[in-house]
Amino acid sequence: MADWIVGNCPLPSEAHAKLALQRQANLTKPAGSLGDLERLAVDLAALQRTDRPRAIRAPIIVFAGDHGVAVKGVSAYPSDVTVQMLHNFANGGAAISVLARELGVALLVVDAGTLSDHSVLGVVTDKPRCGTRDFSEAPALTAAEVVQALGCGRRALGQVIAEGADLAILGEMGIGNTTAAAAMACALTGRRPEIVVGNGTGLDDAGRERKTRVIRQALAFHDIEGPGSKVEDILAAVGGLEIIALTGAIIASAQKSVPVLIDGFIVSVAALAAVRINPSCRPWMLFSHRSAERGHQLVLDELGARPILDLGMRLGEGSGAALALPILRLACALHSGMATFDEATVSGRIA
Fold it and tell me: Which residue in the list 38, 145, 242, 317 is annotated as catalytic?
């Protein structure tokens, strides 16, 4: 792997966390009455090294990629949809495009590995190849391609935070990518595919069984069934270009002291890979929602994560993270805008 990927990430500021906790204790409300909103504000204050955390500037990056294993019938949609969705993103018609407009944040779409031979207007192309190989029959990627995909994530992250960012939102798109993510999750956790594999884009029970069987065979074929497997071997064996780009972006964001709002199952798997590669990036992750995809809770448990929302979503694209952004903004507004007992001349707690 590239040397930069294991570079240490800064620690959150304990001093600013302490100040934020003291402020929360003095606001005109019963202690702890705002629940997780208080925790989120304190966490952001520590990460941003400020007593007034913000969540206004929150650029979104969506990485797109195709998967050779899609030929095995693991998705309810054909691979053509990935490139078609690139145009939909660029034209403003996708869910994340709408959410970005409503939230007033920038949206960057990156072709990290789709089957398209041509660039799409309004989409950044940064990929080592067009789609991965069918990992049920061969390694999905070479070691060099993994390094390039990690670098894609780093470059995209650097582009969106160049003008400043309070935090970054990451999303993905790619037919077959729940299959790659589930295979990665199995290899990273040692859990059986039957426990991890979900219905993805809407497979029926027969389709989910087929998907499970393909993953089970691939894990055995690549000999990555146990938790002792190296992360770099897992990424090359069954990874997706957009998922690996997400991994690189998460680590790069932490190294740049920019918190990351993690989306659903696929981005969480990328986050788990990032933590296994560079554990110092873990404090920089905030978790937006619990996906309806079967394996997501397992991955959240591995990361010790407490998501903000649970709306039964499984769209991807960063949509769950975008929906959680207003809650972060309100948590910051309450933290900074509420009066203290002294400022409001309100009597504090008696004992």
Answer: 317
